[in-house]
């Protein structure tokens, strides 16, 4: 899919970042470099971009796609919770725009052997980068309670307990080492009526939960949001594309807290806490249009939130 990757909500992302010549842009989730290429084109002739991805294969791909901009880019293999460190290391001051396009790229989803999809039988890995334990280890080493809580919290799976029990029972006979075997065990744990009722494959939510846990995706996002006010200069713009409510809720809450930081009791006539807004939310760029979803089903669940950095000190 590498050559066919369509950047999600491209026009809306570029509009929200408003790239300009000489600007400095950070892309924390470079992927195939689709959004980055457009930001670089829109900030010609001298806008620069620092691009991060935790997946070395994504960096290779993006490097090839962005080769025409080679004097204006720096690509680093790192997780985006290190953006502040990487920006400081660059020594070029604060950024004019920061973009996150969360989750998996189509390349990762389609690439064989990475264990993200239950539609093929392959090793149960699910790591976006090359570090840390994969999903098979998590499934093998977590207790029934831990698995149930994981499936509930990160997969919002209503039958979490039942599924966890089935996994613990089956792994005692033989380790659950492949995506196909896990999907089979999850499906087998659900009553037929429940399986029929579901619009998506019965293993969808369990796979989502494991992927989020293996890659610490929500932890990464929270650590990023904590540093975001320190990445941007006044007037700089933040844009985050998320694909499920667990992520979007965190982004929405962070933007609301930055926009209304005052902690004074509502009956106080004037603010005494002195906390000033760090960001101003940017209008309703919201969701992809029908035409985009028809062309690119992956865009269906996308939600774009954007905000402009104020003058207030972080
Ligand atoms: C949806 S894709 C980005 C696609 C990109 N915007 C484009 O237009 O080609 C998400 C990318 O973010 C990377 N990624 C996910 N979480 C990350 C993290 N915490 N730190 C760095 N990269 C991450 C993934 O490896 C993947 O390549």
Tell me the layout of helices and strands.
Blueprint: H1 10-17, E1 24-27, H2 34-42, E2 48-53, H3 56-65, E3 73-77, H4 83-90, E4 95-101, H5 106-110, H6 135-141, H7 144-155, H8 160-173, H9 179-188, H10 192-197, H11 204-214, H12 217-227, E5 232-242, H13 245-259, E6 279-281, H14 290-295, E7 303-309
Parallel strand pairs: 1-2, 1-4, 2-3, 4-5
Antiparallel strand pairs: 5-7, 6-7
Helix pairs in contact: 1-2, 7-8, 7-11, 8-9, 12-13
The protein binds S-adenosylmethionine.
Residues 5, 7, 28-29, 31-35, 52-55, 58, 79-80, 101, 103, 105, 128, 220 line the site of S-adenosylmethionine.
Notes on the structure:
This protein is of the alpha/beta class. Helix content is 42%, strand content 14%. The chain contains 14 helices and seven strands. It has helices at residues 10-17, 34-42, 56-65, 83-90, 106-110, 135-141, 144-155, 160-173, 179-188, 192-197, 204-214, 217-227, 245-259, 290-295; strands at residues 24-27, 48-53, 73-77, 95-101, 232-242, 279-281, 303-309. It has a seven-stranded mixed sheet, with helices on both faces. Strand 2, helix 3 and strand 3 form a beta-alpha-beta unit. The radius of gyration is 21 Å and the shape is globular. The mean pLDDT is 94. The chain binds S-adenosylmethionine. Specifically methylates the N4 position of cytidine in position 1402 (C1402) of 16S rRNA.
């Amino acid at each position: 899919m590498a050559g066919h990757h369509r950047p999600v909500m491209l026009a809306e992302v570029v509009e929200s970042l408003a790239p300009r010549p000489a600007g400095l842009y950070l892309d924390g989730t470079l992927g195939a470099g689709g959004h980055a290429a457009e930001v670089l084109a829109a900030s010609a002739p001298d806008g620069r971009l620092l691009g991060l991805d935790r997946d070395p294969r994504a960096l290779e791909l993006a490097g090839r796609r962005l080769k025409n901009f080679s004097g204006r880019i720096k690509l680093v293999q790192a997780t985006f919770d290190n953006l502040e460190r990487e920006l400081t290391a660059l020594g070029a001051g604060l950024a004019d725009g920061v973009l996150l396009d969360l989750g998996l790229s189509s390349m990762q989803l389609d690439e064989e052997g990475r264990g993200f999809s239950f539609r093929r039988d392959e090793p149960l890995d699910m790591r976006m980068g090359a570090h840390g334990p994969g999903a098979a280890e998590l499934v093998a080493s977590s207790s029934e309670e831990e698995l149930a809580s994981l499936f509930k919290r990160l997969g919002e799976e209503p039958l979490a307990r039942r599924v966890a029990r089935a996994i613990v029972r089956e792994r005692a006979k033989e380790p659950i080492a492949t995506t196909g075997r896990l999907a089979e065990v999850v499906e087998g744990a659900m009553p037929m009526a429940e399986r029929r009722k579901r619009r998506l494959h019965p293993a969808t939510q369990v796979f989502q939960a494991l992927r989020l846990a293996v890659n610490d995706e929500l932890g990464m996002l929270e650590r990023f949001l904590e540093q975001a006010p320190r990445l941007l200069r006044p007037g700089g713009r933040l844009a985050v594309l998320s694909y499920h409510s667990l992520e979007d809720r965190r982004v929405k809450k962070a933007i609301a807290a930055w926009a209304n930081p005052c902690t004074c009791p509502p009956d106080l006539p004037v603010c005494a806490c002195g906390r000033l807004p760090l960001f101003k939310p940017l209008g309703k760029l919201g969701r992809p249009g029908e035409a985009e979803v028809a062309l690119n089903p992956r865009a269906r669940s996308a939600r774009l939130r954007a905000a402009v950095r104020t003058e207030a000190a972080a």
